[in-house]
Amino acid sequence: RAEGEQVPGLLPILAMELLKVAGLARVAGSGGNLMNAMRDARVWDSKQALYRRAIERHPASRWEAFVAEAGRIDLIAKGRLGGDPWLALERLLTVIAEARARRLLAS
Hints:
By secondary structure, the protein is an all-alpha fold. It has 5 helices and no strands. The longest helix has 23 residues, at 7-29.
């Protein structure tokens, strides 16, 4: 925010990563081969540990909810829904980083 970036400019990158992690979490949750899925998703070897930790932090259903929340934030940023897009984005990122903060998305 301090650098002058607007929420709509950040959302495509965030949405792409959320979709990737949600797909990987589905594979992991169904007992699939996560290594193959990461290779197919073009996750660099140096980043695979980060993705694994993220996948372990939340179940696949929650990653899907994060994707939906990113869509809602996009609507807020475009003026189609009421609210502060920066606050909504901050809450989403906080919940992704800290599973115990889940209740922030309920507000």
